[in-house]
Amino acid sequence: MIRFDSVSKVYPRTNAPALREVSLEIERGEFVFLVGSSGSGKSTFLRLVLREERCTHGTVHVLGKDLGQLSNWKVPQVRRQLGCVFQDFRLLPNKTVAENVAFAMEVIRRPRAEIRKRVPWVLDLVGLGGKEDRMPGELSGGEQQRVAVARAFVNQPKLLIADEPTGNLDPQTSVGIMKLLDRINRTGTTVIMATHDAQIVDQMRKRVIELDKGRLVRDQHRGVYGYQN
Ligand SMILES: Nc1ncnc2c1ncn2[C@@H]1O[C@H](COP(=O)(O)OP(=O)(O)OP(=O)(O)O)[C@@H](O)[C@H]1O
């Protein structure tokens, strides 16, 4: 699903690499927490997987494609198999809940009949049945993140990337979001989640990958958060 071979990333106009010779493999269906202090390279790792950035050295394979060799016009073909959730939700403020989710299907040109069927299905799945016509601004943070998860999952991606999805939520609301991600993972979707939330990592006991100053320093099966902020 994902393979990093000796991957380094140096951003332009910087000296210290954001990632240093990272090698790892993530198999289909895994649930992986990416941890490490601020600036350790978590978001950089995720940006390389999304091909928002290219690595400086090494190779990144995602879904069988070498992203370094992939021409720009082929990037959307890979991206449409990936779903993303962010700390700040990133919903379209002028569209309703249902329209936000439908939009993810429209951009990849799914047929209207399918959109009409799948949007209510996925909103039910995330526990937002009945709130289809609300605007994002009329929802709580937890509800907005549920919309974002619905939008990320509606096209049934092979891989779901979550960058601190509970960063703006209280502990109880966070547990609800994690239950949802766990459920999505159980459908076969691989989940990679960057987080600073020790409680969640310790509760879920999934694979934990830790970065420190761009280096992979820990790769633990059924791991714990394990470092101090
Ligand atoms: N676009 C960029 N240009 C230059 N340097 C960058 C850029 N993005 C990140 N960096 C640097 O790369 C390093 C890793 O940053 P990254 O955002 O990947 O860390 P992180 O682990 O996600 O941090 P956080 O937990 O705070 O989100 C940092 O030193 C950061 O300053």
Automatic annotation (TrEMBL):
Membrane topology: Peripheral membrane protein
Key words of the record: ATP-binding, Cell cycle, Cell division, Cell membrane, Membrane, Nucleotide-binding
GO MF annotation: an example: ATP hydrolysis activity
GO biological process, one term: cell division
One Pfam short name: ABC_tran
Domain of life: Bacteria
Family: Belongs to the ABC transporter superfamily.
Protein name in UniProt: Cell division ATP-binding protein FtsE
